[in-house]
Amino acid sequence: MADFEVVVLGLGGIGSATLLHLARRGKRVLGIDRFIPPHSHGSSHGHTRIIRQAYFEHPQYVPLLAESYRLWRDLEKLTGEKLYHEIGVLQVGPESGVVVPGVRRAAQQHNLAVEELSPQIMRSRWPALSFPDSMAGVLEAHAGYLLVEECVRSQLAAAKDAGAEVQAPCEVLRWEGGNSIRIHTATGMITAERLVIAAGPWASTLLGDLYLQLQVRRKSVFWFAGASHFSAQAGYPCFLYELPSGVFYGFPLIGSQGIKLAKHSGGQRVENPLQVNKSIDAEDEKNIDGFRSLYLPDVTNQLLEHQTCFYTMSPDDHFIVDRHPQANNVVFAAGMSGHGFKFSPVLGQALADLSLDGGTDLPIDFLSLERLSTL
C-alpha cells in the first residue's frame, strides 16, 4: 500500500488550497514544500494580492472567480480569519488599450457592476492620484485585496485540522510514475496513489517531460511612505494603470505596510529560482520611480520595504491546469503568469476533482494543456 493516497508538491496558494480540498474529502494526503510555508521564495508572498471579477485577461475566467470569491468567504468562516478586504479596484488606461475594454467586455458578458469614470471625476474623488485626459477609468466596487501569507497559512491550518500532513522543508529531487508513484526527496522516498504538482517556478523541473515552455521572471515590489489621506480607510482603492511604459499596479496605505507599487508587465528572466539576486535592481527602481513621480506625486521616495517574487509565464499568459498526458494519476497547475493567486481555492478544488474523480464540473477546459499545441 502507498504511504499516501495523494501527495501535493508545492504549498503556495494553489497547493495549500488543493491540500485542504483533498483533506476535507477524507483522503490520506501529504503536502511537501522545499521551504516552510508561507515563505518568500516563490509567488505567494508580499502581504497583499488584488482580487477582482471583471477580468480583462479573458471573460472565461469570471465564473471561476465567482466560485473563488465564495470559497474565500467559506475559508474565512472556517478559520475565523479576515482574509478578503473589499476596498474596490480602479483600472485606468486608454480607450484603445487592453485593460479598460477588457474590463468592460467581461462585465457586460457576466452582468457585473462596474462604474465608468472620466479623468475629471477620478481627480475629484482621488486627488492623490493623477489621471491624464487621454485615460478612461473603470471602478469595480466588489473587488479589493487578499492578505496573501494569511491565506496560505489559513489553508494549511484548515488542511491539517482535516487530517492532512505537511513535510517542510523538504526538497523533491524527482518523481517516477506508475500505479504507485515514487517521490524521491533529499531525505528518502515517499509513495502515493496520486500526485498533484503545484510547484510555481519549479514546475518546469518537475514537469520537464511536457516541454511547457514556461518562463520564470523576477519581479520587484516596493513599499513607500505616504500621507495618511492616501489610505484604504480614506476611500482609496487598489489601482492598475495601463501605460505606454507598461502595466503598473498599487495599493493605498494599509495599516503600517506603506504604499505598495509594482510593475506587472515585463520582468527579468530567471534560469534558477534558487540563484536570484534579491537586492534592488536599478532598472526596476527607475521604472517605479517614473510611475510614482507621474501618477502618485504626493508619495515620497522614502522606501520602507522591497521584495522580489516570481511570475511563471505560460506561452499565452493563461494558466495550464490539466492531467499529465502520460500519467493519469498525476495532475498539475502551472504557468499562473502573474495573476493566479486570487484563484487559489477554486483551482485547488479543480485539482482535487481531477485527481480523485478524473474530471471536474468547474469550467477549466480553456486552461487545458492541449491548447498550447495550436500556438
TrEMBL record:
Highest classification ranks of the organism: Bacteria, Pseudomonadati, Planctomycetota, Planctomycetia, Pirellulales
Enzyme class: oxidoreductase
UniProt cross-references to PANTHER family, sorted A to Z: FAD DEPENDENT OXIDOREDUCTASE DOMAIN-CONTAINING PROTEIN, PEROXISOMAL SARCOSINE OXIDASE
GO molecular function: flavin adenine dinucleotide binding; sarcosine oxidase activity
Keyword Oxidoreductase annotated: yes
Entry cofactors: FAD
Pfam families: DAO (PF01266)
Signal peptide: none
Protein's UniProt name: Monomeric sarcosine oxidase
Annotated ranges, domain FAD dependent oxidoreductase: 6-354
Keywords for this protein: FAD, Flavoprotein, Oxidoreductase
Keyword Oxidoreductase: yes
Enzyme Commission number(s): 1.5.3.1
Listed NCBIfam families: PRK11259.1
